[in-house]
Amino acid sequence: MLFKLLTYLQPTHYFGLPRQNGSFVFPDVSTLPPGDLNYALIDKDYCSEIAKNYDVSWQLIQKGYIGQEQTINTIEAIPIQDQYRFIRKYFHTAWVAYVLALRLLSFNNPFRELQAYYSSRYIKRSRYLETPIPYPNWNGFQSKLLESKPKISIIIPTLNRYNYLQDVLIDLEHQDYNDFEVIVVDQSEPYEASFYSSFKLDMRVYRQKEKALWLARNTAVKEAQGDYLLFFDDDSRVKYNWISMHLKCLDFFKADVSSGVSISKIGDKVPKNYSFFRISDQLDTGNALVKRAVFEQVGLFDRQFEKQRMGDGEFGLRVFLHGFLNVSNPYAKRLHLKVGSGGLRDMGSWDAFRTKTWNAPRPIPSVLYFFRRYFGNQRAKLALLRLVPLSIMPYRFKKNKPLLVLGALISMVLLPLVLFQVIKSWRLSTCKLKQGPLIDTLK
What is the spatial distance between Cα 443 and Cα 438, in angstroms, rounded to a whole number? Predict the structure, then answer.
């Protein structure tokens, strides 16, 4: 982490890890052209020059900087006053107090911590995301990749969602880019082979009796004939230019992955931090275009996540660690209906932290497997502390901050039960770690 206190707030964030070549994602400010620095607000009130530069670098990545300049390879220590200044600028005051409490409980020097916390009390939260980095050449960009018409393989696993899959396939029939094949891996019961006969698509359908999402996607990747693989969900809707916007993004940024954005209701706004181009800190296998070469180097999806959660997150992190460029693309948008039946709702858990029964593990064991494997036990525990109390309230209140706070308070009352659920998840994730990843290769 550029700033150590981020470890408490974002313990399992992609950008907190160095890539395989030892570099971090953050640009080295000393190597940037003066024009690029204009996109950041330079804070001269930091105690150290290093903290000032790290703040600029962090801002640029958050605001959408996608450049080829040298990145930071080593992270230097920063005074604790600068640490508190940083988190006070970019996080809610409640989270700053949360960090202080953890620091005090961890037996850090209380006088030094309180002094640093107190000295930052007048700092106002930054509104930096209101001015993301623009890419004015995007609209007029003539993509040679689009003109070359590479073959795309669209991969759709499906389970008991023929009513919704029909709309999915109709949307694909109306795409303005038509050099693609569709690979459907159908796990439905009963299986309706005749369903597919009416669509005017280059489509291959594979019947899979085992209800297994990652097996389905891995099978489709192996069978795909395209050099670009476009992952799609069976309960989504897209506009006519969905494929072309993904391809254009890859070409514009010379990227390896275009990660589209999702909304869940017609008319919803794309969340602010997904409304502009930026290096993506996730990979959504319901809306992502991936070069085939990426799978050839990093392998297929890890089947340790079968019937559980975070499989696409783990794959996305592998992509990041190998140094591939994954761009969050606001122009490749989908409407994700998140229907109440079929898919993961039929075969397993679809929410990472919310349990269906009182004795179920919290979070889903695959989540802890992912956290512990890549970030270690200490950061995994910090992630539990950060996320579990907020998961007490039902999913429909996920964006209601007052109710999330109420959930955190309720979790203290239910502490023995919550501890039981977490310990159970930890034990099951240990079994996964001992078994190791189940990652096949693309030959």
Answer: 16
Asked if pLDDT for residue 395 goes beyond 60, the answer is: no
- Dihedral pair phi/psi, residue 338, rounded to 5°: 50, 55
What secondary structure does DSSP assign to 142-209, as a single string? --HHHHH---EEEEEEESS-HHHHHHHHHHHHT-S---EEEEEEE--SS--GGGGGG--S-EEEEE--
pTM > 0.70: yes
Share of the chain above pLDDT 70, in %: 93
Tokens at 201, concatenated: 């698509």
Say which amino acid occupies 121: R
The two tokens of residue 430 are 């240990």
How much is the mean pLDDT over the chain? 92
Closest CA to 165 of 284, 301, 339: 339
Beta-carbon-side half-sphere exposure of residue 188 (alpha carbons within 13 Å) = 24
In three-state secondary structure terms, 257 is strand
Tell me, what's the pLDDT at 107?
A: 92
CA angle 52, 56, 61 (to 5 degrees): 150
Instruction: For residue 279, give the 3-state DSSP assignment.
Output: strand
**Using one digit for the tens of pLDDT, what is the confidence trace for 64-82?**
999 888 999 999 999 999 9
- Residue 5 or residue 264, greater confidence: 5
Query: Given the DSSP bridges, would you call strands 228-232 and 236-238 parallel, antiparallel or unpaired?
Result: unpaired
Q: Transcribe 335-374 into DSSP letters.
A: EE---SSSTHHHHS---SS--SSTTS-SS-HHHHHHHHHH
Domains located in the chain, CATH noted: 6-130 (no CATH), 144-344 (3.90.550.10), 351-435 (no CATH)
Tracing tokens 């890539």 back to the chain, one arrives at 19
